[in-house]
Amino acid sequence: MAGKALAWVTAALLLSPVLIAADDGDDLTARQLADQAKDNLLDAKSVHLKLTDRSTDTRTSTTQPTSMDLALDEDGNCVGSMEMGAHGGSVEIVKQGDEVWMKPDADFWKAQVPGGQGDAVAELFKNRYIHGSTSDAMLKGMADTCDLTSFQKEVAGDEDDATPLTKGDETTVDGTKVIPLKGTEDGKQEVLYVTSDSPHRLVKATQHGGGTDLTLTFTDYDKPVPTATPSADESVDVGKLQEELQGV
Question: Which residue of 91, 151, 232, 242 sits 20 to 30 Å from the alpha carbon of 32, by its own alpha carbon?
Answer without folding.
Answer: 151
